[in-house]
Amino acid sequence: MNKLIKYREKLNLTQGDLATKSGLSVRTIQRIEAGATLKGHSLNVLSQALNIPIEKLSGVENESLLNYKLIKLINLSSLPFVIIPLVNIVVPLLIMYYKKEINLITKQIVSIQILWTILSSIIFLLSPFIGRLISLQNELVLIVLIISVLLNVGIILINAISLDKNNSLRIKLNFSFL
Fold first, then answer.
1. What is the DSSP string of the chain?
2. Long-range pairs for 153-156: beta carbons < 8 A, 24 or more residues apart
3. pLDDT of amino acid 1
4. Measured between alpha carbons, how far is 140 from 134 in angstroms, rounded to an integer?
5. Which residues of 47-58 are buried (b: 16+ CB within 10 A; e: fewer)?
6. Average pLDDT of each block of 10 consecutive residues along the chain (178 residues)?
7. Where do transmembrane segments lie in this chain (predicted)?
8. Which of 43, 47, 118, 140 could in theory staple to 136 by disulfide, Cβ–Cβ 3.0 to 4.6 A?
9. 162: burial class by Cβ within 10 Å (0-12, 13-18, 19+)?
10. Is 36 helix (H, G, I), strand (E, B) or coil?
11. What per-residue confidence (pLDDT) applies to 137?
12. CB atoms < 10 A from the CB of 113, how many?
């Protein structure tokens, strides 16, 4: 049975109900349920409409084939390098490609680190200017650095715990840089 049919029927939705909820046409849903490949925009809106992870709906990966211990290692490999920008991205990326564990979850892990590095770098660079405005120039830079590192450590650990318990990421993005 097609995964879309299974999830749609589990929620007691008709094809029309799902079309309305997702914004897709009934014909598109019929084609997907008949065996058309589910990808791109349709995959995203259907996973949101059904409130399920993209990887469960896509059928691209068989969850039983994923090496969750290695995925957890890829996630935790950023931990020692949270203070060093770019290394917290490169190390998991190298492990991911070297061990050939390239899937939606590992791409999300690396994408989170990319986004986090960009955002924390911008905030860190702006902190001296904001510090001058509130008379905490040097202190604010240090505070921003410490909070940034602690939040990144928290994200990594929360996702590691979620990988252990649910075989999925707790904190993830709606897009991927990879």
1. --HHHHHHHHTT--HHHHHHHHT--HHHHHHHHTTPPP-HHHHHHHHHHHT--HHHHH-SS-GGGS-HHHHHHHHHTTGGGTTSTTHHHHHHHHHHHHTT--SHHHHHHHHHHHHHHHHHHHHHHHHHHHHHHTT-HHHHHHHHHHHHHHHHHHHHHHHHHHHHHHSS-SS--SS---
2. 153/79, 153/82, 155/112, 155/116, 156/75, 156/76, 156/78, 156/79, 156/82
3. 47
4. 9
5. bebbeebbbebb
6. 80 90 90 81 86 73 71 93 89 92 90 93 86 76 88 95 90 85
7. 73-98, 110-134, 140-163
8. 140
9. middle
10. coil
11. 67
12. 28
pLDDT of residue 3: 80
The amino acid occupying position 96 is: M
Instruction: Report all structural domains of the chain as residue ranges with CATH numbers, in order of start.
Output: 3-58 (1.10.260.40), 63-166 (no CATH)
Question: Looking at this protein, which amino acid is placed at residue 123?
Answer: I
